[in-house]
Amino acid sequence: MKLLALSGSARTASTNTAMLDSFCRLAPPDIDLVLYHGLADLPIFSPDREGENAPAMVNEFICAVHQADGIIVASPEYVRGIPGGLKNAIDWLVSGDEIIAKPIVLAHASHRGSDMLASLRLVLGTVSHRFNAELFVQFPLMSQTPQDVRRTLETKGNTSMIVAFLKEFSTYIVQSDTD
Ligand SMILES: Cc1cc2nc3c(=O)[nH]c(=O)nc-3n(C[C@H](O)[C@H](O)[C@H](O)COP(=O)(O)O)c2cc1C
């Protein structure tokens, strides 16, 4: 099972990225979860630059999405919405085939951000009919350093919650596959 993790934060010390990094470290052996690092470097989306005209970075991103059996997204809220970099990345996927049946779930590294979460649920439910809004995990990690995020998540109780989340997502991917 190959999973891709996307963080909506370009911040070096991002709690969302650190949380996803812990997910990668805690994933059971049969789940290969990889964090995508190129989101902040993707060019601004334009329909004029799709297909044959797509920049190499965009093709690499689309390929990473294509090769993943499922995607986990985690993002901060910026000005009550989805950060531009994450929305830009999603926009690059919309007219292709890679996203439409891709299983997607959300995780969240803050006790705040409900407007962004509502908006992201709407967007992800629009681009993929296998977005699973019920499967969701949230930790109050706002303002923690990446080291503290790791310490908090890699304790027994939180670790078992994360492993259970990843296993449930893996089961959902298999069970919702109608191909
Ligand atoms: C430009 C900017 C706008 C923000 N807007 C909001 C907001 O509207 N609502 C909110 O709850 N937090 C807002 N925040 C706080 C971030 O969502 C919060 O610090 C988040 O945990 C950062 O995630 P990260 O550690 O992954 O970068 C904003 C932060 C920045 C830098």
UniProtKB/TrEMBL annotation:
InterPro entries: Flavoprotein-like_sf, FMN_Rdtase-like_dom, NAD(P)H-dep_reductase
CC annotations in GO: cytosol
Gene3D superfamilies per UniProt: 3.40.50.360
GO terms, molecular function: FMN binding; oxidoreductase activity
Domain NADPH-dependent FMN reductase-like, residue spans: 1-126
Pfam families: FMN_red (PF03358)
Protein's UniProt name: NAD(P)H-dependent oxidoreductase
Biological source species: Parasedimentitalea marina
